[in-house]
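Subject: for your reference before the review

Hello V.,

The reviewers asked for a structural picture of the protein, and I figured it would be easier to keep everything in one thread rather than splitting it across files. Below is the amino acid sequence we used in the manuscript, unchanged from the supplementary table.
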Amino acid sequence: MADTTFDAPPELEGEHCLGKFRRHPVEFFVIVIPMPPGTPVTYRVECDDGVGPHEVCRFSDATEEPVIWRGSWQGDEWCSWILGRARALVADPSRFDF
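And here is what came back from the structure prediction:
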């Protein structure tokens, strides 16, 4: 049987993966998205549940900006947990594995 889990999602030019966290059987990755100078830093959370990586949400370090949840993740019971872990990883990337 082929292993379908990625070690890390592919990085586009200028993007940087801060790290990952898990909630069995899903791995979540937090990626810094390059933004123009003077704009809030923006992050993308992707997940891989065995069928390949896909976007979960986007958020910024400007707390007044809303979190944008993608597809079926909007309103999911894991949303607050995902966002909490993602913000903790942004605050201290060394706390999480990668």
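For the response letter, the relevant points are probably these. The longest strand covers residues 16-23. The first helix runs from residue 79 to 91.

Happy to draft the paragraph if you're swamped.

O.
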